[in-house]
Design a protein that fits this description.
- This protein has 15 helices and 13 strands.
- It is α+β, with helices and mostly antiparallel strands.
- It folds into 3 domains: 166 residues, no CATH class; 112 residues, OB fold (Dihydrolipoamide Acetyltransferase, E2P); 86 residues, no CATH class.
- The strands form 2 sheets. Strands 7, 8, 9, 10, 11, 12 and 13 form a 7-stranded mixed β-sheet that branches. The protein has a 6-stranded mixed β-sheet with strand order 5-4-1-2-3-6.
- Helix 4 crosses helix 5 and helix 9 runs antiparallel to helix 10.
- It is globular and about 65 Å long.
- 34% of the residues are buried.
Length: 443
């Protein structure tokens, strides 16, 4: 079935071309109108509520009339195009894997009840970046946002927005001065700009969680980070009756740049019990654990008790293999972007050559080296693996998460960090910084 994965899909290249044209406006800025590129946008949304707003925004921007609402509309249009790509590619991936798509659950819209000065300031800053253009940014234009960013980080309700803006802010600072347009990661920066602009419209409430009861089989873990923020994501299969669902549990934390390497794991002591079960290959029995429509658990230690030992690769092959009826929830609307495609897949009968995974169907998948906690060397000689199927820059790849080592025991990405968290050192960068922060608070 996987031989169909690399088939070129109708509409994908056309949407990618439209996005590239739109992003070109952000490279040199909106002063000067960008008339021809912007004029083509409204027709793409003909018959949709966004169409009339786009027409108004495009006409105004062509006359160098700059109002936040016009840029919010551009961000919404761009997000819709990326969301369409996500839906096309995900449907193709599910069809190839022999899985049924689950019905998306309605998510609460963003509907701010009142103006928030911090969000107002954020939209203003993002608009100024777009007007200037990423290739012409000056340090003062970026650093002017620092005070607002500091206040956003201190607001627990805005932690997700603050995390994205913190990474974006420092990425821009580190890239200045921009010496050449070829040094601008345009697609990435406009992606970040668009998401930040939509987040700055208002705070969306989380959907009401359901409850889950059944056996949770933790299968792997992924550490995501930028210089000042980190997230620990634990993946597993939740078996409720006859239904198997792919689920995630995420813990996140701001961090200092001095915290590097495996010490980052020490930021997540609350994850230790779940990681211990992963390390020991023991299931966890959940009772009324809160779970969001996206498949994200809201961890409640009181809703958990230890279960039986299991064989991780056997579970992965039984529920994540091609043709298995695994339930994998789609991303929420604002997060639907091709880079967010991460379909679990368990494979056998493959070979590793030149950093690529060669399957018996003749399909060749790139190994996702930047995200992979398991390298090609780790996978050499193995006969089964669990990974995440990704799509980026027109290429399908796999991020290996779980396999077995030469001794036949299971091996998962992040084992060294898990073992460090299990037996943390008496002194670490994390403990020193926490002690210093505690002293400052006592003063």
């Amino acid at each position: 079935m996987l031989e169909n994965l690399t088939i070129e899909l109708d509409g994908v290249k056309a949407i990618q071309t439209i996005l590239a044209d739109l992003d070109a406006c952000f490279l040199h800025g909106f002063v000067g109108g960008q008339h021809e590129i912007l004029a083509a946008l409204p027709s793409l949304f003909d018959g949709m509520p966004l169409c009339s707003r786009l027409q108004t925004s495009v006409q105004a921007l062509a006359q160098n009339t700059f109002i936040e609402g016009y840029f919010v509309t551009l961000a919404a249009a761009r997000s819709a195009l990326q969301g369409t790509l996500y839906d096309l590619l995900r449907h193709h991936a599910l069809t190839t894997l022999g899985r049924s798509a689950t019905t998306p659950t309605d998510h609460l819209p963003i509907s701010p009840n009142q103006t928030d000065p911090l969000l107002d300031s954020t939209r203003e800053w993002l608009m100024e970046l777009a007007i200037a253009g990423f290739a012409r940014l000056e340090r003062e234009a970026v650093t002017s946002f620092y005070s607002t960013l500091t206040q956003l980080r201190a607001n627990p309700a805005m932690i997700s927005h603050a995390a994205l803006l913190t990474g974006f802010f420092h990425e821009l600072i580190n890239a200045l001065p921009v010496k050449s347009t070829t040094h601008v990661p345009l697609l990435r920066w406009v992606d970040l700009w668009s998401r930040a602009m939509l987040d700055a419209v208002g705070l969306a409430k989380l959907p009401i969680p359901a409850t889950a009861s059944g056996a949770l089989y933790p299968l792997s873990v992924e550490l995501r980070q930028h210089s000042r923020f980190a997230s620990l994501v634990i993946y597993g299969v939740l078996k409720q009756g006859d239904v198997a669902q792919w689920v995630r549990q995420t813990w996140s934390s701001f961090k200092a740049t001095a915290i590097q390497g495996n010490e980052i794991w020490l930021l997540f002591p609350q994850a230790q019990p779940l990681l211990e079960h992963l390390l020991q290959a023991k299931a966890m029995n959940l009772r009324d654990m809160p779970i969001l429509p996206s498949g994200d658990l809201l961890w409640d230690a009181n809703a958990v008790e230890s279960g039986k030992k299991f064989k991780p690769l056997d579970i992965a092959l039984a529920y994540c293999g091609i043709g298995q009826a695994l339930v994998v929830s789609p991303m929420p609307p604002l997060e639907r972007h091709p880079i967010q495609l991460a379909e679990p897949i368990a494979l056998t009968d493959y070979a590793i050559q030149d950093g690529q995974l060669h399957l018996k169907e003749g399909v060749v998948l790139a190994l996702d080296a930047p995200r992979a906690g398991l390298t090609a060397e780790d996978l050499a000689g193995t006969t089964a693996l669990l990974g995440l199927l990704h799509y980026d820059a027109g290429e399908w790849s796999i991020q290996p998460l779980l396999t077995h080592n030469p001794a036949g025991k299971f091996e998962f990405a992040g084992r060294a960090g898990v073992e460090l968290l299990k037996k943390p050192p008496k002194t670490s960068t994390v403990s020193i910084l926490q002690e210093r922060a505690s002293r400052l608070l006592r003063k």
